[in-house]
Amino acid sequence: MSEPAALLRQHGIPITAQRLAVLRAVSGRPHATADAIAEDVRAEIGAISRQAVYNALGMLAEKGLIRRIQPSGSAALYEDRVGDNHHHLICRTCGTTADVDCAVGKAPCLSASDDSGFRIDEAEVIYWGTCPDCLAKA
Fold first, then answer.
1. What CATH number corresponds to the domain at position 109?
2. Residue 1 reports pLDDT greater than 60
3. Which helix (H) or strand (E) element contains residue 97?
4. Which residues pair with 105 in a beta bridge?
5. For residue 55, pLDDT beyond 80
6. Mean pLDDT of 39-47
7. Residues 127, 132, 135: CA angle, nearest 5 degrees
8. How many domains does the chain have?
9. What pLDDT does 138 receive?
10. How high is the pLDDT of residue 94?
11. Rounded distance, CA 10 to CA 46, Å?
């Protein structure tokens, strides 16, 4: 991630200590939940409400500075890897999440069997399985 203050400035977003801390927390712990990000932010700047963290995450995702992914049956996860249409691997046992690059070419990386007249520009894929650590424990 670029320097957080510069990134906010480039997108016309007012710079606050809370937004800077949220950006740093997302960058420091990819695929974290909002609650985990709030913990990191509190450790950095002290008190901040859960709602302030959710508001910052929502605005930063809307502006394209971070990405929100919503795996089925899980809390939303946030990351700062944006703009490349990568996909994710998620362990069914422990929830570990990892990035995986597109299988074929550039975005959307996949072709729908019937696009129903849509111009498709992105594909969101989540691969589910068991991570190496959980396999070793089994």
1. 3.30.1490.190
2. no
3. strand 97-100
4. none
5. yes
6. 95
7. 100
8. 2
9. 86
10. 94
11. 27
pLDDT in tens, 62-96: 999 999 999 988 899 999 999 887 899 999 999 99
The pLDDT, as a whole number, for residue 43 is 96
Q: Are residues 93 and 109 in the same domain?
A: yes
Longest dimension (CA), the chain: 51
Residues 43, 27 share a domain: yes
Phi-psi region of 95 (alpha: psi -120 to 50; beta: other; left: phi over 0): left
Contacts 24+ apart (CB under 8 A), 21-26: 21/45, 21/48, 22/53, 22/56, 22/57, 22/60, 23/60, 23/65, 23/66, 23/80, 26/57, 26/60, 26/66, 26/78, 26/79, 26/80
- pLDDT-derived band at 107 (thresholds 50, 70, 90) equals low
Where residue 8 falls (left for φ over 0; alpha for ψ -120 to 50; beta otherwise) is alpha
C-beta separation of 79 from 67 below 8 A = yes
Q: Which of 61, 78, 95 is the last residue of a domain?
A: 78
Print the domain residue range for 110: 83-138
